Amino acid sequence: MIVYEELREVHLLSVVELCKRLSWPSYSDPMRASRALSAPGSITRIARSGATVVGLAHLLTDGVIQAHLSLIGVHPELRRQGIVQQLVRLAFAASGAQWLDLVAEEGSERFYRSFAHSERVGFRVYPREWSGEPVSTDAF
Ligand SMILES: CC(C)(COP(=O)(O)OP(=O)(O)OC[C@H]1O[C@@H](n2cnc3c(N)ncnc32)[C@H](O)[C@@H]1OP(=O)(O)O)[C@@H](O)C(=O)NCCC(=O)NCCS
User: Fold this and answer.
1) Per-residue pLDDT for the chain (140 aa), expressed as one digit of tens each?
2) Contact 20, 53 (CB under 8 A)
3) CA distance 13 to 31
4) Does the Cβ of 72 fall within 6 Å of ligand 1?
5) 3 state DSSP class of 120
6) With a 6 A CB cut-off, is 57 part of the ligand 1 pocket?
7) Cα–Cα distance measured from residue 88 to residue 43, given in angstroms and rounded to the nearest whole number
């Protein structure tokens, strides 16, 4: 049975394992992942099977108008069971926002099109001072 709930400290190591499985190295350190997923304005919902976290959705919101989807994913063996759709619905319902913006990774378009939506051009920018160092634009 899949249980949907808010992220709690007790889930953290299992969340990190899922992030590793999904090749998201930015979330491989538990303390860093915890800070990111519980930052002000964050709403994080997880799906778990027993003690194992199998899916998550994290968004950032002003609580009134805007919400931005930061991270969604589900274990590869549990895809197409409606798990992430439910996580996104639950996180958005808790946000109080009017809409949810996101940047879609290649291959995820059909998932996002399963919601009522409109399509815009998306960008991910790295607005740093020029240091001469190359900027990695494909890090996850
Ligand atoms: C994209 C992802 C989050 C979808 O999660 P999911 O739980 O499998 O999706 P759901 O079962 O909730 O799908 C809901 C609907 O979206 C559509 N959909 C989802 N995945 C799809 C796919 N691979 N192909 C076609 N349609 C898809 C379908 O309409 C589906 O409904 P249906 O199964 O009744 O037809 C999942 O594939 C994943 O974790 N991918 C790796 C991480 C990733 O790409 N994250 C997105 C970064 S932007």
Assistant:
1) 999 999 999 999 999 999 999 999 999 999 999 999 999 999 999 999 999 999 999 999 999 999 999 999 999 999 999 999 999 999 999 999 999 999 999 999 999 999 999 999 999 998 887 778 777 887 77
2) no
3) 10
4) yes
5) coil
6) no
7) 10
pTM of the model: 0.95
Strands (DSSP E) contained in 34-94 are 42-49, 52-61, 67-74
Angle, nearest 10°, between helix axes 12-21 and 30-37?
Answer: 100
Q: 43 alpha carbon to ligand 1 midpoint, in Å?
A: 20
Instruction: Please report, for residues 5, 43, 92, 98, 112, the alpha-carbon distance to residue 62 in angstroms, rounded to integers and kept in the order given.
Output: 21, 11, 12, 10, 22
Q: How far apart are CA 79 and CA 82, in angstroms?
A: 8
- Eight-class DSSP state of 74: E
Q: How far is the C-alpha of 118 from the C-alpha of 136, rounded, in Å?
A: 29
Ligand 1 proximity of 21 Cβ (cutoff 6 Å): no
Which amino acid does the sequence have at 132? G
Q: Whose CA is nearest to atom 20 of ligand 1?
A: 111
